[in-house]
Amino acid sequence: MRVVVVGSGVIGLSSAYNLARMGAKDVVILEKEYLSYGSTVRSASRFRVHFWAEENSKFALESKKIMVRLPSITGWNILVTTGGYLWLLFNEDEVKVFRKKNKMWDRLGIAGKFLSPSEIKERYPYVYVDDVLEGFFGPQNGSCFHNYVAFGYYKAAAKLGARLFEKSPVEKVLVEDNRVVGVELPGGKVEADVVLLAAGAWTDGLLRNLGINLPTEPERKEVALTEAYRYFIEPLIIDFGTSAYIGQALKGEILGSLEVPVKSGLLPLENTLDFLVKWARAVYKRFPLLRGARVMRCWSGYYSMSADSSHIMGRDPDWPRGLYVAYGDSGHGFMMAPLIGKLLAKNILYDEVDELMRPFLPTRFKEGRLIPEKLVIG
Ligand SMILES: Cc1cc2nc3c(=O)[nH]c(=O)nc-3n(C[C@H](O)[C@H](O)[C@H](O)COP(=O)(O)OP(=O)(O)OC[C@H]3O[C@@H](n4cnc5c(N)ncnc54)[C@H](O)[C@@H]3O)c2cc1C
Q1: 327 CA to middle of ligand 1, Å?
Q2: pLDDT score, position 363
Q3: Based on the domain organization, do 114 and 43 belong to the same domain?
Q4: Does 242 score more than 90 pLDDT?
Q5: More exposed terminus of the chain, fewer Cβ within 10 Å: N or C?
Q6: 55 and 181: one domain?
């Protein structure tokens, strides 16, 4: 079976690795720019198991198990930390919904802990809590280094025979007699029996060329990083009021983002003063000791947003045979990638639809079986 994977982000690479590991002999990864140019290495590199939709929590839990074992699989130390996530909640409604969800998380074995403002202050004296009603702490959550996850997958896939071609933009998927026969690039064609579109936020365009319209759209997100400090912010802190998230990165930089109103679409990968000012204000308010901290770097990337904010994987039987997708991960695709790649490889090679994967099939939109996910960060 000749497989073309379009896109060398973490999802394409995890899929390519798993396909090669499960015996696919001819796996080609086509990347329009260079290895992991897209959202993967622009992400905040965090993982969590707490989602409001049970399907997402279950999926993330299994994905995390693979993620933390990746060093023994790929040989790359991905620098896992588990400082947890701390959500700061400001009103009764927010607390109520977290209490309800915590019952579901408890059933899944991933209950978190509610903290009063004084308990937060005791654990994390640097956080301003005067306006906080309660906190929810998820100790199971953490971070790792996105580059080493992606490069590790790439190296492991290459060792098994998968081939990567950079500067190879796929222009369209070629279909004959309702089955995929390859892809077209500016310089020619690559023949294939299977084409997996894992092109992140750019997947919409490739699908539309085939007359397939799934309810997804790219949304640009911005991130900022300050100068480095001694390590002191253990969890990722998510301010439910401003939507800001703030954590500490590998070298000690304060890293984070917050939502600013933006038009959807593939906007230029730039940064705005609006974002920077709002994020800086949110940081100063929550961490008064960071007043005067200097921002060293900003960048932006795309969330591939789906209509229900849950990822999309697999195929619709009405599509040309051999066509698969993995995208629409709405800001949580990095953490889901280890399991997406594994289950998708089984789906492609053995036509197996795992129970954890079934809810995320692209057919859910026309069947009205959405997985509404409201706990999107950033
Ligand atoms: C600011 C920010 C913070 C984030 N933080 C987190 C986080 O903390 N945790 C988390 O789980 N997720 C996070 N995410 C989301 C996460 O980064 C993505 O869900 C994930 O990286 C998606 O991986 P991917 O492989 O699908 O896409 P990408 O990494 O975008 O890779 C797609 C690749 O396809 C290539 N491509 C596109 N079109 C073509 C074409 N026509 N031909 C060939 N190649 C093509 C692109 O160049 C790109 O390299 C964040 C995203 C952003 C933007």
Answers
A1: 9
A2: 98
A3: no
A4: no
A5: N
A6: yes
pLDDT digits (tens, 9 = 90+) for 245-264: 999 998 999 999 999 999 99
Quote the number of domains for the chain: 2
CA geometry: angle at 85 spanning 79 and 88, to 5°? Answer: 155
Residue 51 has pLDDT above 90, yes or no: yes
Assigned domain for 167 exists: yes
Whose CA is closest to atom 19 on ligand 1? 333
Does 137 share its domain with 150?
no
Band of the pLDDT at 341, cuts 50, 70, 90? very high
Q: What separation in angstroms does the CA of 245 have from each of 106, 237, 250, 327?
A: 24, 6, 16, 23
Q: What is the CATH number of the domain that holds 264?
A: 3.30.9.10
The residue whose CB lies within 8 Å of the most ligand 1 atoms, and thus the one to mutate among 6, 37, 39, is 39
Q: Are residues 120 and 68 in the same domain?
A: no
What distance in angstroms lies between residue 12's CA and the mean position of ligand 1's atoms? 9
pLDDT digits (tens, 9 = 90+) for 83-120: 999 999 999 999 999 999 999 999 999 999 999 999 99
SS3 of 262, please?
A: coil
Residue ranges making up the domain that contains 280: 85-141+221-301
**Position 102 in a domain:** yes
Whether 241 has a pLDDT exceeding 90, the answer reads no
Q: Are residues 151 and 296 in the same domain?
A: no
Residues with CB under 6 A from ligand 1: 6-12, 30-33, 36-40, 42-46, 169-170, 198-200, 202, 206, 221, 223, 257, 301-303, 327, 329, 331-335, 378
Atom of ligand 1 nearest to the CA of 45: 8
Residue 378 has pLDDT above 90, yes or no: no
